[in-house]
Amino acid sequence: MPDAGTVPCRGTEEQDGPEGPSARGQRLTVVWRNVVLMGLLHAGAVYALVLVPRAQPLTLLWAYFCFLVTALGVTAGAHRLWSHRSYKAKLPLRIFLAAANSMAFQNDIFEWARDHRAHHKYSETDADPHNARRGFFFSHIGWLLVRKHPDVIEKGRKLDVTDLLADPVVQFQRKHYKVSVVLMCFVVPTLVPWYIWGESLWNSYFLAAILRYAVALNGTWLVNSVAHMYGNRPYDKHISPRQNPLVTLGAIGEGFHNYHHTFPFDYSASELGLNFNPTTWFIDFMCLLGLATDRKRATKPMIEARKAKTGDGTA
Questions:
Q1: Where is this region: Disordered (predicted)?
Q2: What is the helix (H) or strand (E) element at residue 165, kind and residue range?
Q3: Is 202 part of any domain?
Q4: Cβ partners under 8 Å of residue 92, min gap 6
Q5: Residue 60 falls within a domain, yes or no?
Q6: Most CB within 10 Å of its CB: which of 41, 201, 227, 237?
Q7: Would you state the pLDDT for residue 197?
Q8: ∠ CA(249), CA(35), CA(123), 5° rounding?
């Protein structure tokens, strides 16, 4: 990763693929287990909407709280901490973020971070796990329903992941991932409303587990799809990622995507100011508590210089 204070060279962060779907002609191998499971999950989420009026207010608040924890496990954890090393976290915070990441159930931290590094290094090529040039559906969810392109596997093996291998929290979560997912993604969200304030297990399961999980998944996927297709590019008009307010809301601050791909080392993934970025607020709060340190930032002169050189002229 580039150090703060230097403008990352576009050649190392973004590589343009051919026009149109870069994997055209590549035969897709459908993973039917994933198709069925994703279909059942989303059917269950739609059904859960019927239960919303019947649930206790505390249950709805709990489901939203679980959504925020889930999102932080991805945004502050797998993404900004472990993928980009944009700040440092003390052991208690890393343990919390690992548990939150298990609640997110989006592959373990090691695999998530490795694939995300491939996404940045080989963006919009066949080595990008969710290459947006293969269409909206593929970049949103389709990439999880088929076998990985061989380039994703080949190039992924060449990435430097020594820091992930050396992190005992990452390795512990990877070793016990299935058990931690069952507990954090399904058991804990379901049992808390039932045990503490007497909500039915049925409502607890479908609202705090299934609906919350489906909404959180799609919030993350919006970054891969919508934020690579719709929006402006004030920092670098030559790359696909864009600024998108909708994604910012759904992914608690990850919608400033043109900025993020231009300055991937920046812990805030956006310019500081009044931007809606709950993940940045969380990291800043952890710094106040002494649990996070060494936040990396792009400097104002660096940002302005990059805007003038490669931006599309929008604010």
A1: 1-24
A2: helix 162-166
A3: yes
A4: 291
A5: yes
A6: 227
A7: 97
A8: 55
Q: Kindly tell me if the per-residue pLDDT of 13 is higher than 50.
A: no
Q: Is 52 helix (H, G, I), strand (E, B) or coil?
A: helix
- Residue 43 domain flag: yes
Count of domains forming the chain: 1
Q: Give the pLDDT confidence of 242-275 residue by residue, as tens digits.
A: 999 999 999 999 999 999 999 999 999 999 876 8
* Owner of token pair 């191998």: 29
3-state secondary structure 105-127: CCCCHHHHHHHHHHHHHCECCCC
Strands (E), 118-175: none
Q: How many Å apart are CA 259 and CA 271, to the nearest integer? A: 8
* Beta-carbon count within 10 A of 126 CB: 22
Residue-range definition of the domain harbouring residue 281: 31-310
Sign of CA dihedral 29, 171, 177, 175: positive
Listed as own residue / partner, the contacts of 305-309 with beta carbons closer than 8 Å and 24 or more positions apart are: 305/7, 306/7, 306/235, 306/236, 306/262, 306/263, 307/234, 307/235
- Provide the CA 78 distance to its chain's centre, in angstroms: 7
